Structure formats: structure tokens, C-alpha cells
Amino acid sequence: MKSEKLKIALSIYFSCLLLASHHTYAQIKLHTEDLPRFYQALDSVMTTSDTVKQASYVQHLYVDKASKGLKEFMKLRGGNAQKWLKFMTTSRSTILAKKSFILSAIDQESRILEKIEKFKVVYPNFRGGDIYFCVGINNSGGTIQDNTVYIGTEIAANQSPDWAVPLVLHEFVHTQQWVQRNINDLMKDEQAAQSYMASHKSLLSQCLLEGMADFVSELVIGQRLAERFPDGHIAFGEKYEAEIWQEFQKDMYQDIGKSKGWLYAEKEIAGKSCRDLGYFVGYKICKSFYDKAEDKKQALAKMIELNLSDENSKEFLLHSDYKPAQPNGVK
Fold first, then answer.
1. Angle, alpha carbons 103-173-21 (nearest 5°)
2. Which of 19, 109, 187, 203 is the most exposed place for a label (fewest CB within 10 A)?
């Protein structure tokens, strides 16, 4: 019988790969009910210096009333009354400054659901799911499990009036990919899960997984990510594409544990540093694969549903015919 520790470890592994009511649209349920509850708890915490009372407010007003998604998010990323209380007291000024941005997720529902509908048009095999906007303990801006998206608004929210749209789309692409479509079977079969982990170790595989989510979200949004985020990794990558590719080829078949800053960290290229440049490489490979395809819907479906094992990732790179641009003399 599989131990609880192994179940938790596998759950964390796969999830990393990746107002008071909810509204249903295009087989999607979007939940924002936890957001005002968090600030209700914070307001109550600020009325007293008694730590016992403070913890009680957090427990009764936020934790006990947590949506199903927030409870699941707690299991995936941690969280309890004491941890939230610590976050509230140590980061109160930041949390208050972000309040309007975080609560603006409530007003972005129609734009999110509109883009989800467009997603279904370009990808007929789309499967529905839930989107939960939560306030976590400042350790995750977004994660997924099976067909559910969890957004940690305390990290993700910003002053953009539709900040949630590209993030939700990026994470929702992950719910469509092979690993999340098969995660329940993998979680039930220890041998299958171990085999998966052993055959999905390369940096290239993970960069394709993440870069694909960027590419598809861009396709659905209808705006180049380099334009939308001029200070982001896509815009940076466009300037230094040849240099990035030259360096990436040295590392792309190495174990992701030795990713050397390509993912979830900063990488220095041409004397300048940028986070998540592995996303950019995966994005460009996926874009090349899609652009050269005559049947776009078929190409998109093949891409999203591909089991990105190390061997399949090599083959996908070959078929993409990706050839980076030459340096443009950018300094």
C-alpha cells in the first residue's frame, strides 16, 4: 500500500510541474469568495494586539470558511492560522497596499471567461475545470492540480486592470497538458509515477512544458507577450535570442536539478540577467512548431497533448525546425 508520504511527495512533484459566489461559463467555475474573507480576517486582526484573539480571528473568519479550493491549496502549498497570522503581521503594509489589486480579480471574471471561450475555439479538446483565487502564505503565485487552477493573489496581483488574465491562461494550459490529464492514474500507480519521473528529467522537457503555456496563452490573448510585458523574459529573449540559444544548447539535456538558472531563477546572458529564460526557449520552439504547421488546430492539439518525455522532447525540438534569429547588434 502506498504510503501517505509518497502520495504527498508525488502530489507536490506533479503540482510543481506546473465575490462570495462562483459563476459558471464554458464549463468553467471561477471562485473569488476567499478574497474578501481574507481581508475581513485581517481587519479583525488589526483591532487587537492579543495574539490568541488574532489567531482565533484568522481561524474562524478565513480558515474555517475556506472554499474547497483554498483547502486544497493549503495541502499543496501549506497554510494554517498561525502561518497566515505571521504573514498578516509581518507583511501588513504590503498586503494592504495590494488590497485593491487582489480584490480586482473579482471584476476580471468576464474577461477571463471570454478568453477561456476563445481557448475552446482554437483547442476543441479543451476540458473544463475550476479556478480559485486565494490569498496564500506568500509562497506560490499559481499552481495546478488535475483540471484546477489555484492563484496565489498575494504574489500574482499587480496594478494592471487585467493582471489575472494571462496568468490564469498560462496555468490553465498546464491543466490541458498530458501530465495533468493523466495525473490521477499516475497518482494511483506508484510504478507508473516513478517511471514518469525517471523519463521526464531533462531541462528541455520542463522548458517546453512551461514555454508552451506561454505560447498558447499568447495565442489566446491575441497580443504578443513581449509587448504586454516589455520587461519580461519573452521581451528580453527576443533581444538576445541567438546568445540564449547558444548557451541553452549546452545544458538542455541535463537533469532539471542542474538547470543553472534557466528556470525559476535568474540567468546571465550578454552581461545582463533575466528570470525564467527557459520559458522563452520553450516558447520559441513551440511557436516555430505551430507557425510551420498547415493545420493549426491539429498542431496545437498535438503540442498540448504530447507526453513531454525526454525522448519526445528531443523529437519535438527536431520537428519544430527551430532556428534562432541572428544577433541584431543589440548591446
1. 35
2. 19
